[in-house]
């Protein structure tokens, strides 16, 4: 009888132990499935260029062609021409005094740089010795914290969006146009990013303007989608020409500690820049998976 009791107890222990192990493995597996694998699912980094110390605070980039990208950093009034093939700065162009410069875009021989208070610097013939700099004033201010700027070649206008609160203080952030013919901000947004959109439900904050912080904007040269980068929440939004949010991609913070600039080459390759924290600042070529 004693032997029988020992056998029964041993069997019970095996059953209980197996159940605990099974539960633990199931829990572990479930956690693995639920943890987003950013770089393996939504996008793929195909190339990385580490920036030199002068571009540690890289805040904006714009494609020039011939494997060159125009870059700015948020302290000095200097445009840096970075060569991806040679992996180095090829030229430094001074256009203004020190300031909080956050975005850059190129229209042929002219460059446009956004300062965080909404003042846009137009640098005519920016790669020539006789370059001329002038200012385009807008109704934005430092309260809006402007960090985005893109030249829309199809409509000959600059496009920007507030990082912080919109001009209207409503529950959206508008895409605003500055036609180069008038150089006057159109107070009516061409599109609106509604902070209550179901596509942003996962990121929605109690104070709605904190749901999405646009850090830069560009239009894909082939699909004509708007790509809008959020450097604070490390996300990338794809927006249709009609204003529909088609996709919101979460970026891995280890790969993109502070992404603040994006641009496209003529053939549609996407480049995203990130400021340096623990690691060096970088420009990355990114492939968005369908």
TrEMBL record:
Transmembrane segments: 6-25
UniProt keyword Membrane, yes or no: yes
Keywords: Cell membrane, Membrane, Transmembrane, Transmembrane helix
GO CC term, one of those recorded: plasma membrane
Keyword Transmembrane: yes
Pfam families (UniProt xref): SdiA-regulated
InterPro entries in the cross-refs: 6-blade_b-propeller_TolB-like, Quino_amine_DH_bsu, YjiK/CarP
Domain of life (superkingdom): Bacteria
Subcellular location: Cell membrane
Family membership noted in the UniProt record: Belongs to the YjiK family.
Protein name: SdiA-regulated family protein
Organism: Aurantibacter aestuarii
Lineage: Bacteria, Pseudomonadati, Bacteroidota, Flavobacteriia, Flavobacteriales
């Amino acid at each position: 009888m004693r032997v029988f009791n020992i056998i029964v107890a041993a069997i019970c222990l095996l059953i209980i132990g197996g159940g605990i192990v099974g539960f633990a493995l199931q829990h572990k597996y479930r956690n693995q499935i639920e943890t987003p694998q950013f770089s393996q699912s939504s996008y793929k980094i195909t190339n990385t260029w580490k920036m030199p110390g002068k571009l540690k605070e890289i805040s904006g980039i714009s494609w020039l062609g011939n494997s060159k990208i125009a870059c700015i950093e948020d302290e000095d009034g200097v445009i840096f021409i970075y060569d991806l093939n040679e992996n180095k700065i090829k030229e430094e162009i001074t256009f203004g005094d020190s300031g909080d410069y956050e975005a850059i875009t190129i229209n042929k021989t002219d460059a446009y740089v956004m300062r965080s208070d909404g003042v846009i610097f137009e640098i005519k013939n920016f790669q020539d010795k006789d370059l001329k700099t002038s200012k385009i004033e807008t109704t934005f201010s430092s309260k809006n914290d402007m960090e985005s700027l893109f030249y829309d070649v199809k409509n000959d206008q600059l496009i920007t969006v507030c990082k912080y609160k919109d001009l209207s203080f409503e529950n959206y952030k508008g895409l605003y146009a500055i036609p180069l013919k008038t150089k006057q901000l159109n107070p009516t947004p061409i599109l609106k990013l509604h902070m209550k959109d179901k596509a942003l439900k996962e990121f929605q904050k109690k104070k709605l303007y904190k749901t999405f912080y646009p850090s830069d904007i560009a239009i894909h040269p082939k699909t004509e989608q708007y790509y809008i980068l959020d450097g604070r929440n490390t996300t990338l939004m794809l927006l249709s020409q009609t204003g529909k949010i088609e996709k919101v991609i979460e970026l891995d913070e280890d790969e993109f500690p502070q992404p603040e600039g994006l641009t496209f080459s003529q053939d549609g390759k996407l480049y995203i820049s990130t400021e340096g924290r623990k690691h060096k600042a970088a420009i990355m070529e990114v492939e968005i998976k369908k």
